[in-house]
Design goal:
By secondary structure, this protein is mainly alpha-helical. The protein has helices spanning 3-22, 29-39, 51-61, 79-86, 98-112, 123-128, 137-154, 163-172, 184-202; strands at residues 47-49, 114-116, 121-122. It has a three-stranded antiparallel sheet with strand order 1-2-3.
Amino acid sequence: MNDQQLMQSIFSAWQTTIATAVKGTLVPAELLAGLVANESGGNTHAQRFEPAVFTEIAEVLAGKRTVFRPTGISRPLMLADLLPFVAPGVPFQPGFDLADYFKHCVSRVAELATSYGLVQIMGWHWIEFNRPASMRPEDQLAFAVVLLVYFANKYTLDLAADAAKLFSCWNTGEPGGHTYDPLYVPNGLARMELYRSLAGAAGAPSAT
């Protein structure tokens, strides 16, 4: 599938949801669509586990690290932030399986270290912003808008004019970060333009 076909498929499947997510904000619909294209290709089931993130979060939980503070985070996450999600209280009672509970806790750490959905939001972001984690595309896209606005405010960026820097923020946490894929930003910009053209041809607003 080439980029034209990719953006057509995203427009056909998600144009209404994207428009709803950006409504009343300064986030251009095509920016959000570009993130969908770059991060998942429109696959709602996409996910990616990050071993290095898992290790850092586990170190906080083990008391080997004071805080989890990746580049761009709005506030450092400490044991008190992470533990309620990882190890919710379970009463010890007859039949309680400690091994299963332990495995459950480790899997919750893995959830925090995994990115999910259309725009691949990392699990720890939901804790960072005190939002209930959700796999619903509508919730994920709405949260993506919150994150984009956060990055724009943190780094004094223009949501309409600084798309390249915002793509970098999404991928690395900062405007000038080094993306693992050197084409991540240019691909995003090109896909934005394709989505804008599709929206224009369909008579749909590119931003609200």
